[in-house]
Design goal:
By secondary structure, the chain is mostly beta strands. It is built from three helices and 16 strands. The strands form three sheets. Strands 5, 6, 7, 9, 12, 13, 15 and 16 form an eight-stranded mixed β-sheet that branches. Strand 1 and strand 2 form a beta hairpin.
Length: 366
C-alpha cells in the first residue's frame, strides 16, 4: 500500500507577559511533499537531535518517522508551511491572531473573531465532532473556539493552498512562527509559487483505496482532509475543492513503523457543514485533554498506560514514531495522469491551518 504521513509539531513559547502559547506545525510526509524542499541541506540532511529544538530556536526542525520507523529529518522545514490568523466567516487571514487561551486572563479568554462584522455561525456544534471545550454549548459565551477553522471545516481562508513559509509575511516571530531562509525558500513565500514540481512520489489506481498516514509531535485538535488537483491547474482552494477524497474504513494508530505495534478503531468522519458541501473530513483522533486550558476533550483510543495517544500539547510528550493511518478512496472515474495531493488541517484550538502539496500519479483500473 501507499503511505502518506503527516507530522504535527507544536512548541510552547513564552510571549511578553509570560503568556504560554502553543504553536502547531504539521505536514505530509509520504508521498514526499514539495514543502520539504530543504531536505538536501544541513542540518536536515543529518541526524535528528535527541531532543529536537523548538520553533523559536530558528533551526526549522520537522522530525518525522523514517523508513525504519525512527525520527528522520527527511521532511526539511515542511511543517512550517501554514496560514496563521484564519477564522470562519472572514475573507482573509490576518497572519497574527493565535486564538483563545482561556486560562491566561481576559486578553486571551475570549473568542477570536478576527474580521469586522463577522456573523458566521459554526457548522460543527455536536460535542462528538469537536475536540476541545466540548462541554460548552455551541455559540455560548464560553464557546471560546467558535470562530476556529475546524468549526466550519474547509470554509476559513488560507494564504496559500500549499502553505506559506512561516505562516505569515516577514519578519520572524509573533504567532506566525519562523522559517529558516535557505537557497530554496524564505519566510513569507507562497508554497504554490516557490516550491518546484517533483517527480511523482506515488502511483495510485483509480477506484481503489490507498493508505495514508500522519504522525503527531504536538496537537491542536480539529481535523483534516485530503484532496486532489490536476498538476497543470492552479493550486488554489477553488481547484482543490473540485476533487475532495473520501475516507473509508477504520483508523489505525501505529508505533515503530510497518513492523511495529498497531491498534485499529472506528474513525469519526464529518460530511455535514463542510466545504465543499459533502466533502469528508476526519476528526483528529488524538485528544488534547488538557482540561485546565482547553476544557473537556474526548476519551483516548488506546490504553494510555501502555501507549502515547493523548495530549501531545507542547511537543515534549509526543512520540514522533507514532502514525495515524487512514484510507482514502481515489475516484473511479478520475482521468489518469499527474496530480497534486493536497492536505489541509483545520485546527480548533487555534486560528491556524496547515497545508502540504505532494506530486502523485493516477493510473486507470485494469
Amino acid at each position: 500500500s501507499t503511505t502518506v504521513s503527516i507530522m504535527f509539531f507544536v512548541q510552547a513559547v513564552a510571549l511578553a507577559g509570560c503568556v504560554g502559547v502553543v504553536w502547531s506545525h504539521g505536514a505530509v510526509v509520504s508521498p514526499m511533499p514539495r514543502n520539504g524542499v530543504d531536505r538536501d541541506l544541513a542540518p536536515w540532511n543529518g541526524p535528528v537531535p535527541p531532543k529536537p529544538p523548538g520553533v523559536e530556536s530558528d533551526t526549522g526542525w520537522c522530525p518525522v518517522p523514517g523508513k525504519d520507523g525512527k525520527p528522520s529529518g527527511q521532511n526539511g522545514q515542511s511543517c512550517f508551511y501554514f496560514s496563521n490568523g484564519c477564522a470562519i466567516g472572514c475573507d482573509a487571514c490576518d497572519g497574527t491572531s493565535r486564538g483563545p487561551i482561556p486560562n491566561e486572563g481576559p486578553a486571551w479568554r475570549r473568542k477570536f473573531n478576527i474580521c469586522p462584522n463577522n456573523t458566521a455561525k459554526p457548522t460543527i456544534c455536536d460535542p462528538a465532532l469537536r475536540t476541545v471545550n466540548t462541554a460548552a454549548v455551541c455559540g455560548a459565551a464560553d464557546d471560546w473556539y467558535q470562530f476556529s477553522p475546524w468549526r466550519a471545516p474547509g470554509s476559513a481562508p488560507v494564504f496559500d493552498s500549499c502553505g506559506m513559509a512561516g505562516g505569515h509575511h516577514p519578519p520572524n516571530g509573533g504567532f506566525g512562527g519562523i522559517y529558516v531562509n535557505t537557497t530554496h525558500a524564505k519566510l513569507g513565500d507562497a508554497g504554490s509559487v516557490v516550491l518546484p514540481e517533483m517527480d511523482s512520489q506515488a502511483t495510485w489506481t483509480a477506484g481503489e483505496a490507498v493508505e495514508v498516514s500522519w504522525t503527531i509531535e504536538a496537537n491542536h485538535g480539529g481535523g483534516y482532509s485530503y484532496r486532489l488537483a490536476p498538476i497543470e491547474s492552479p493550486l488554489t482552494e477553488e481547484v482543490f475543492r473540485q476533487i475532495p477524497l473520501d475516507f473509508v474504513g477504520q483508523q489505525t494508530l501505529r508505533w515503530g513503523g510497518v513492523n511495529g505495534t498497531s491498534i485499529s478503531f472506528n474513525a469519526t468522519y464529518v460530511t455535514e457543514g463542510t466545504t465543499p458541501p459533502g466533502s469528508m473530513w476526519s476528526v483528529n483522533p488524538i485528544p488534547r485533554n488538557d482540561d485546565g486550558q482547553t476544557g473537556k476533550g474526548f476519551p483516548p483510543h488506546c490504553d494510555t498506560t501502555k501507549y502515547n495517544c493523548e495530549g501531545m500539547t507542547d511537543g515534549s510528550t509526543a512520540d514522533p514514531t507514532m502514525e495515524i493511518l487512514d484510507h482514502v478512496m481515489i475516484p473511479k472515474n478520475i482521468k489518469p495522469g499527474r496530480y497534486v495531493l493536497g492536505w489541509r488541517w483545520d485546527c480548533e484550538e487555534s486560528n491556524q491551518i496547515w497545508q502540504s502539496c505532494s506530486d502523485i500519479s493516477i493510473v486507470a483500473a485494469v
